[in-house]
Design brief:
By secondary structure, this protein is mainly α. 84% of the residues lie in helices and 0% in strands. It is globular, with a radius of gyration of 18 Å. The N and C termini lie far apart (37 Å).
Length: 225
């Protein structure tokens, strides 16, 4: 039961809030807000589990999020009022995902990453189906064959495989290190958004990205010391 609830939190609640927020903000902006979840992981872990978070580690996080703030301020002038609603939704996704990573660690240690991920994904899938049926007609599932292929590819490459990799990482290196290393993924997403979707990338974005990467490297070194 615990695995199911934790899985629903990480793969249903967090994902739903993230995608809902994406309706109101750009991909880059969404990723930048979502990248705040390592702060929640570190702070919650320090308070609840009494894990060590040194001043240098927190300084590295400040550097990373100062870079995020730089990009955030730059993009804010380009977005309308909907950005506030979208920002709150994505921030909620970040908090939900941080709680998921923390709660998943002891369960993974007990039953293993593969079993946990299978149970978590199954419970999240059940929650998605129930949610869909509550707000949509069953006829809306009538999609073209091409659309079904795209959906299957997204489910496998972007959801199922990363979920197993993420659970294995949490089990091996813990939620804090996994959270910080996960910053690489949103940065890659932002780059793809620029080249594929044509989103704006200015010197402010470049500087902010460099600050984030530097902060992540410093954090990892401090944690390994």
């Amino acid at each position: 039961v615990r695995s199911a609830l934790v899985g629903a939190l990480g793969y249903y609640v967090a994902s739903y809030l993230d995608f809902k927020g994406l309706e109101f903000v750009t991909v880059q902006f969404d990723r930048l807000i979502l990248m705040t979840y390592p702060i929640f992981v570190v702070l919650i872990s320090a308070v609840v589990f009494n894990t060590k978070a040194t001043a240098k580690m927190l300084g590295a996080l400040v550097l990373s999020y100062a870079g995020l703030a730089l990009v955030f301020v730059r993009d804010l002038s380009l977005l309308g009022d909907d950005v506030y609603l979208g920002g709150v939704l994505v921030l909620g996704a970040a908090l939900a995902f941080a709680c998921y990573q923390i709660l998943a660690k002891p369960v993974i240690d007990q039953i293993g990453a593969r079993v946990f991920t299978s149970m978590a994904m199954a419970s999240a899938g059940f929650a998605v189906v129930v949610h869909f049926l509550l707000i949509n007609d069953i006829g809306s599932l009538a999609l073209s064959g091409r659309a079904m292929v795209y959906m299957a590819g997204i489910a496998l490459v972007s959801t199922i495989l990363p979920a197993y990799f993420l659970s294995a990482a949490i089990g091996r290196v813990g939620p804090q290190a996994t959270a910080v290393l996960g910053n690489v993924s949103p940065l890659v997403t932002a780059v793809l958004a620029v080249f594929i979707l044509g989103e704006v990338f200015t010197p402010y974005h470049a500087l902010g990205t460099a600050m984030v990467i530097a902060g992540v490297i410093l954090f990892i070194r401090q944690q390994a010391a």
